[in-house]
Specification:
The chain is built from 6 helices and 4 strands. It has 159 residues and is of the alpha+beta class.
Amino acid sequence: MDNIDRQILTMLQKNARMPNSDIAKQLNKAPSAIFERIKKLEKNGAILGYQARINPKSVGMNLVAFVSIQIEAGNWMDACGEEFSAIKGVEEVHEVVGTYSYLLKIRVGGMEDLVKLIKTKIGAIPEVKGTSTTMVSHSIKSDCPIDIDLYHGEKGENK
């Protein structure tokens, strides 16, 4: 991946609907070359997909919580990660190091939905030994694009 690919990724993170011709103009390249680069970035997994960003509150998803989970086996089990991932309302599943084995980001309509999800979905998984929940009162920064230049610098060299 070179500096042009990183610039393309940065532009697409800001606006995934940006036409190839606009990207090409900004990078002083042919639209066909940009199209080929984007297809290559998709094929090699740098671009995972394209999606609309929806305001969660506009669809009644008003509560965000992080749930730390201890499991009986001590550490991670592929089956547990898959089961957590399949629960509606679970946005993220992370394997973590420390007292807990997993950290889940959950978004639901409200407190009753959260309690029900923890009791009937997470608690129903036999390997779950315990949970600890932290509710978000206000999100200051979320849905952040990846800072591609943070590691590579502006000219593409590793810092």
